[in-house]
Design brief:
The chain is mainly alpha-helical. The longest helix has 26 residues. Helices cover 85% and strands 0% of the residues. It has one domain. Helix 2 runs antiparallel to helix 3.
Length: 97
């Protein structure tokens, strides 16, 4: 088994445990990404696209959980949400320095 399969199986086995933890994790990472996007914008240039991506992916993950979709889809959405927000953090930290 590869790392993805092991992680997915662990997520499925401990689904009730991982749901609140993942909501807290992705909300914190998403809010940090939003903070860096807003810190990096000025009055002349507001990064609306980046902020929209951050909010849409974070809210999308919450929507997938509240819709009680399959655990595989929830897990994949969590991975995508975390990747998008981490990429936004890295981009904005590089631009700030």
């Amino acid at each position: 088994m590869n790392f993805y399969q092991k992680s997915l199986n662990d997520f499925r086995e401990n689904f009730i445990l991982y749901i609140p933890l993942s909501i807290i994790l992705q909300s914190c990472i998403g809010s940090i990404a939003a903070m860096f996007v807003l810190m990096n914008s000025t009055a002349e240039s507001f990064n609306f696209i980046q902020l929209t991506l951050c909010v849409v992916f974070s809210m999308g993950y919450n929507a997938v959980i509240f819709a009680q979709l399959k655990s595989r889809l929830i897990f994949n959405t969590l991975i995508v949400t975390l990747l998008v927000n981490i990429v936004l953090i890295v981009i904005n930290v590089i631009q700030l320095s």
